[in-house]
Specification:
Number of helices: 31
CATH class of the largest domain: Alpha Beta
InterPro entries: Biofilm_reg_signaling, EAL_dom, EAL_sf, GGDEF_dom, Nucleotide_cyclase, PAC, PAS, PAS-assoc_C
Oligomer: single chain
Protein name: EAL domain-containing protein
Distance between the termini: 133 Å
Pfam families: EAL, GGDEF, PAS_9
Keywords: Membrane, Transmembrane, Transmembrane helix
Largest sheet: 8 strands, mixed, barrel
CATH architecture of the largest domain: Alpha-Beta Barrel
Number of strands: 30
Shape: elongated
Structural class: alpha+beta
Length: 863
């Protein structure tokens, strides 16, 4: 090789080195800059998300402050308990203080779910429905909710508009008294506004974060930060283009600068390289020095290996041991001469070693690649120990494997601790799925089972059981007796079910039996009859006898009726039918019952919407003086303007509305609208002497009545509240009397409706001291036919005169009725003979036409 060839090759090598260096720099920049900037960008977004989440929390904390003060005030619990120490008007004023410019509504529930107070907000209609406002009451009642609030969230029209439903439990001496619910609409644009580094920011519920792929926290371009104390998150979408742009700009500048900086040294090396070619003897000398250094380094490494606390073993290519450090001998219990030349695998592994791990190690050794694993080994005395093992091949200068180095550490304690944690976790999972009192699977276990059943093709059958008169056992014999009864019922169910069946307690005195595959409704009905007979037997407890019954609801999955996913709900419907039929009954979920349930569900949903949209309206039926037939008042009756079915009477919705606990809301709507219509009639130049409203016990305790009346100018018209006669029998508490006296002091008249239909006592009549009692129309209708009916009405009139109570007869259908009832001494008459219930516009039209007048025999017809 000539001198020119050497120079040319050296220059080419230098140029190649320069280009390689540039390529390496570019690759390093690309591999380092993008991940680094990505991490910095993500860290900044996480900080930003946490800051915004804290901002949302601060907003909610401000909202919660005043509400928590009212919920924790002793007067609030006292008001819900009905002690009488807190005036209704005072409680309403306290609730109104919570209503500001971002409040949609504020409600005060008692523990039974009755709305004691409701204050509308200033921003239009609420977003949350009535059922949603009651979501915390069930948790409060069963003790799962302490003093912590429940915060529900619903997004608005834009990502930064948010509706929050805040439910705060009201406690007294640790016992739940009710719930304060406030709906707030907050504008979070200041907190959630986007910027240059984030593409979008929004507020999401925990359900959305867990269930929706687009909002999943597992995506690298989405950041989620939880809002403390709630179940929703601040979500920030990362601007993915920003990272790439910054990396490109930074990389190009660094690459250009580095390329220029390296150019001069490489050019100098290329130009002067021929002067620094290493002579052969210089290369030999350098080789010897390197060999000496390597020997010294190997000696140091050997010394380090001997001092290491980790076990080190070196084997040849056939896995025969050639060297070990003292830590290996200490760990295994062998002496050095006992292990040298032995097969490493045969020496340490035993019957408990995992075959799959051993196979993985052998395959890696055969392929001459590094491998790591956790394996169970054995000491010389046969005791097992867990080792974290790392095996690395050692290559010679020709690339051939000459040795294997195995480094291991003792992880026995760690594995034992992990086993203890796993056992504890398994035990906790078992406890979480088991009822602590009866040992039966609990509601959570049943829900897990039904999640699996939803995808099963085989139809299943379920029995829903609810104990009858169980509350009497608790009230009469105490909760210890109640627990004893529940334990006995659990034993009866275990003994009465077949293999493959599952019995569970889902709460209180409610149980469920899920029959095994292939068992139908006939078998379920036979089982229910056997269980009912057994449950009816007396249950002894501490020299006492506990007697209970049980109602059963049975549902079998049928592709034409219900599938497995709807079994529990359908069995509930069958159980309710058993309860309504007189208890201690067994009801099968049939197509007719299914149709009734579907119709009832549709009607319930329509009633909820009707309450929110205030589709209920007042109708008026006039009342006339018995002697002169002059108009003396009107009774306000509820009607529902159904969007499809037209005007509906209470018979179409009253019963279900009572079950839904929305009657107080309907009464309040009729009360307010009725007063507004009366005010309009009076402004039109007419004069209504009195307007009366049907009022339940809940409405009599509702302090909204005087407040609503105070905001509507009805002129001299008096307001009367009609109370069913049954109230005289059922409501004899001091609290009820306090509310009646309070209403009477505020100018309300009190009337007894349907008198004679129940079993009211004269003492109860004296205590209530109503202004008017209305004779039930079932007593009025026969007065034209029998003397006995006339004597009964005359007796009621005499009672009224004795106590100074006016008497109204309703159900007056003919002129004969009117004449006889007037002769018997009734003060006021009401019925179809005079007028049917009328809408406000029809009532005004008749007033304007003078069609309410004398209906005595011989007088002109005006109705």
């Amino acid at each position: 090789m000539t001198r020119l060839d050497v120079d040319r090759r050296f220059l080419l090598l230098t140029a190649a080195g320069y280009m390689t260096a540039l390529a390496a720099i570019a690759a390093a920049l690309w591999l380092v800059a993008i991940p680094t900037l990505h991490k910095l960008h993500r860290a900044a977004l996480e900080t930003q998300a946490q800051t915004r989440a804290a901002g949302v929390q601060d907003e909610l904390t401000l909202v919660l402050a005043d509400a928590r003060t009212l919920a924790e005030a002793p007067g609030t619990a006292a008001y819900l308990a009905g002690s009488g120490r807190v005036r209704p008007t005072q409680m309403r004023r306290d609730l109104e203080r919570l209503v500001d410019g971002v409040t949609a509504q504020a409600l005060l529930f008692d523990r039974r779910g009755n709305v004691r107070l409701r204050v509308p907000g200033r921003i239009g209609h609420p977003v949350f429905g009535l059922a949603e406002t009651r979501q915390g009451l069930s948790l409060l009642e069963i003790g799962r909710l302490g003093g912590a609030p429940i915060v529900s969230y619903r997004p608005g029209k834009t990502p930064v508009e948010s509706a929050f439903l805040i439910s705060l439990p009201i406690l007294s001496d640790g016992q739940p008294r009710g719930m304060l619910v406030i709906e707030k609409h907050l504008d979070l644009s200041r907190i959630l506004a986007g910027d240059a580094v984030s593409a979008a920011t929004r507020l999401a519920t925990g359900f959305q974060v867990r269930m929706y792929p687009d909002w999943s926290g597992d995506r690298d371009d989405l950041i989620a930060a939880p809002v403390a104390g709630t179940d929703f998150y601040v979500m920030i979408a990362r601007n993915t283009g920003l990272t790439a742009r910054l990396a490109w700009e930074m990389g190009s500048e660094v690459f250009l600068f580095t390329g220029l900086a390296l150019l001069l040294p490489f050019m100098a090396m290329g130009l002067a390289g021929h002067r620094f070619i290493v002579a052969p003897h210089r290369a030999l000398e350098d080789s010897r020095r390197r060999l000496t250094a390597q020997k010294a380094e190997l000696a140091e490494l050997a010394q380090i290996a001997r001092m290491s606390h980790d076990s080190i073993m070196v084997s040849d290519r056939d896995r025969r041991i050639v060297w070990t450090n003292p830590a290996f001998l200490t760990l295994t219990g062998y002496a050095a001469e006992e292990v040298l030349g032995r097969d490493a695998d045969a020496l340490l592994q035993g019957p408990g070693s995992d075959p799959a791990v051993s196979r993985t190690l052998r395959e890696a050794i055969a392929e001459k690649r590094p491998v790591r694993a956790e394996i169970l080994n054995y000491r010389r005395d046969g005791t097992p120990f867990w080792a974290y093992l790392s095996i690395t091949p050692i290559f010679d200068s020709h690339g051939q494997v000459t040795r294997f180095a195995a480094i291991s550490s003792d992880i026995t304690r760690r594995k034992a601790y992990e086993a203890q944690l796993e056992a504890a976790r398994h035990k906790l999972e078992q406890q979480a799925l088991q009822d602590s009192l009866t040992g039966l699977p609990n509601r959570r276990a049943l829900e897990n089972l039904f999640e699996e059943l939803a995808s099963e093709a085989d139809p299943r059958t379920i029995i829903r059981i609810d104990l009858d008169h169980f509350k009497n056992v608790n009230d009469t014999h105490g909760h210890a007796a109640g627990d004893h009864v529940l334990i006995r019922i659990a034993e009866i169910l275990r003994e009465g079910i077949a293999p493959g069946d599952v019995a569970a307690r889902i709460g209180g005195d409610e149980f469920v039996i899920l029959l095994g595959p292939g068992r139908d409704a006939l078998e379920a009905q036979a089982m229910a009859e056997r269980l009912r007979d057994e449950i009816l037997r007396d249950i002894p407890f501490q020299n006492k006898t506990c007697r209970i019954g049980a109602s059963f609801g049975i549902c079998a999955a049928d592709k034409r009726l219900v599938d497995n996913s709807a079994l529990l709900v359908s069995a509930d419907a069958a159980l309710y039918a058993s309860k309504d039929g007189g208890r201690n009954a067994i009801t099968l979920y049939t197509p007719s019952l299914h149709r009734d349930v579907q119709q009832k569900r549709r009607l319930a949903l329509e009633i909820e919407h009707a309450v929110l949209r205030e589709e209920f309206l007042p109708y008026f039926q006039p009342q006339f003086d018995a002697a002169t037939h002059a108009l003396v008042g009107i009774e306000t009756l509820a009607r529902w303007r159904h969007p499809l079915r037209g005007i509906l009477t209470p018979a179409a919705f009253l019963g279900l509305a009572g079950q839904m606990s929305v009657l107080p809301e309907i009464d309040r709507i009729i009360y307010r609208k009725g007063l507004e219509e009366v005010a309009a009639i009076n402004r039109a130049g007419f004069s209504i002497p009195k307007v009366s409203f049907n009022a339940g016990v809940a409405q009599l305790r509702d302090t909204d009545l005087p407040g609503i009346a105070a905001t509507i100018d009805i002129g001299p018209t008096r307001i009367a509240l009609e109370v069913l006669e049954s109230v005289l029998v059922e409501e004899q508490s001091d609290e009820f009397g306090f509310h009646i006296d309070l209403l009477r002091e505020q100018g309300f008249g009190i009337e007894i409706d349907d008198f004679g239909s129940g079993h009211a006592s004269v003492v109860g009549l004296m205590q209530l001291a109503p202004d008017v009692m209305k004779i039930d129309q079932r007593l009025v209708v026969p007065v034209t036919r029998t003397e006995r009916a006339r004597r009964l009405v005359r007796s009621i009139v005499d009672i009224g005169r004795t106590f100074g109570i006016g008497v109204t007869a309703e159900g007056v259908e003919t002129s004969a009725h009117a004449e006889i009832l007037a002769g018997l001494g009734c003060d006021t008459l009401q019925g179809f003979h005079f007028a049917r219930p009328l809408a406000a516009e029809d009532f005004c039209a008749r007033l304007a036409a003078g069609r309410f007048g004398d209906r005595r025999p011989g007088a002109s017809s005006v109705a």
